[in-house]
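tmp note - Phosphate transporter
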Amino acid sequence: MEDIYIVMLVALFALAVTDLVVGVSNDAVNFLSSAIGSRAFSMKTILIVASVGVGVGAIFSSGIMEVARKGIFMPGEFYFEEIMIIFMAVMITDVLLLDFFNSLGLPTSTTVSIVFELLGAAVSVAVIKIYNSSGSYGDIFNYINTSKATEIIVGILMAVVIAFLIGAIVQYFSRLIFSFQFEKKIKYAGAIFGGVSLTAILYFILLKGLKSVTFISEGFLNYLDNNTLIILAAGLVVFTIISQLLMSLFKTHILRFIILVGTFSLALAFAGNDLVNFIGVPIAAWQSFELWQAAYASSGTLPSEFLMSGLQGEVATPAFLLLVAGAVMVVTLWFSRKARNVVETGVNLARQGEVTERFDPNFLSRGIVRYSVLLGNVIGAITPRAVSRKIDEKFQKPGAFTRDSEDTPAFDLVRASVNLVVASILISIGTSLKLPLSTTYVTFMVAMGTSLADRAWDRESAVYRVAGVVNVIGGWFVTALVAFSAAAIFAAIIYFGGIIAITVLIGLAIFSIARSFVLHSRKEKEKKLKKPFRRNDISTINDIVGESSKNISSIVCGVNQMFTKTVKNLGYYDKSKLKKNKKSIKKLESEIDELKRNVFYFIKSIEEESLDSNRFYILILDYLQDIVQSIGYITRNSYNHVNNNHKNLKFNQIRDLKRVDDKMQALFDEIEDIFANQDFARIDVVLAGKQALLNDVGELIEKQIKRIRTTESSPRNSELYFGLLLETRDLITSTMNLLELYREFNIAVETTRFSTGLPQKEQD
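out:
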């Protein structure tokens, strides 16, 4: 009988290791984003400091493992076999949910997920118990620790508002004190700022955190409680002096030192607070197994008869398990690619300068920005001009925040310090109160609050940044809903399906993780192959030729593949593949949108003698946009035709389209090769075949006109076929105009007469 539960324990601990990996990948944004965003230290240094913090924090976490045992449900109301079902459902759900958010690159709360998974699984099993016993469903509150669960949920939601407001307030006054030109003032106020920051970290991380460590004596803890004010005052004096000595004697940048200590403390707080989310459940399962095993050995109590009242008491967590968990977290921190992806999302939403915005505006973000602007105008109207002018001077940004280099900071050291110190304090308060406070919520909202106060969200970027915040927060609510529902469903499946259901669900988790890994690796490879635009990379005519050639080759390659796939899938009447083609068009359109967004920086970076090249580059983008619009029309109309269940094109029509496709494929292959190798002498050869291609398409149009007058009976087919042929003609025309533009440009450059001789765009 014990064997099945031993197998379940092994599975739970295996899932715990996986959960640690996906969980740390998600939560790395909590303690890495500030240090990485400010570029205060190298990545290696940041990871070393964070690793030490995680390792120490793992030891501090032993005191809050009770959340998984009795924080959400009443263990005394469940039998051992039911408890194991709950724990198994929770771990499978957690692995799947966190990996899903990691794949999206969105930070979510591991605390919220574990809380609602425990709640969902416990409710599910409780409902089944009530149903089997023909009891009243009102008794479900006897199974759930409603007061504690409510306290946790309310605390998590309140943390969102509190973290945002405190982060904004602290950052606003910090900026008023230091401004963006903080190097001078840091010499005078830096010691006090360092003293306050380090004292706060000392109190909330060390003094409060020590209460969770089992090997600290009760007498020492009582001494700390009775002398808190004295310790704080002494700490403030000592750390202020230390900060001044570091600046004066050792020439240490105090803000960098605070960021270093803050990263350590936040990593420590993360491990101390969030480790329960990953290993609390399997440890509780192990402790449950030991309690039942003792009862079974003494009295032969069956797992379906042994109530788990023993989980109500205090049970120490073995230190070696904490150390192993800390080691897994550290290894994940160093090698997880998904962790970097999640960190990038948080950094970009808080970035001071320009960045390629990931999130699209929505009605909520537009409304928030619109009314915030109105509120700002009202406040500005009632504020004296002298005061407004003085405040604006403090927020004058230097030109250091750009999008050019990977080494450029996303924000300065002042904001990074505030992010780390405020988040560390808030998380440590939650840890000291033994609440599973969401470190993700706190750190993310502190970062967003400081970004707002620092005026990082200006009129150019606010609607996108707010949309990103709304999406992330919306994802948190989705986390709660999905965690509750999935855990409840999995618990019911395991309850009725037994070991077979467990095997199937674990197999599903393994398949999902493996598939996610493969897809993420593929995306990373594509990302590496795509060289991002850098303003400093383009300043001369040769740079323009190289950049534009790369863009043309990429777009033409995509259009070539899309045209061939569309014709082929339309011929087979394959709706699913046409739908994939339709979605793939967005990738080409996003490439054009990205190029258009960079036009401003392109023009700003061109050397004075190359300024006449600007119109050439803009016209190239114009023609590329026309090309993508044509292929977009062809692809979408083909899908809509099949999706609406209209008749397929006739064999002769498909055959004619295939012939056109063969010629288009040869054309685009030639053009792609020309621009990939920058062999522009061959452009004339391609242009010589322009009229022949257009004549071929024209002949097909004439042929279709004759079909309509004789045999064609489907107006929908004629509409689609004419549309495809007309857009193909436009596609050929735009492509040839692009080649003619490039030919004229190269002739002008070679003869050094390129000034205003660019041809106007033809209107077709």
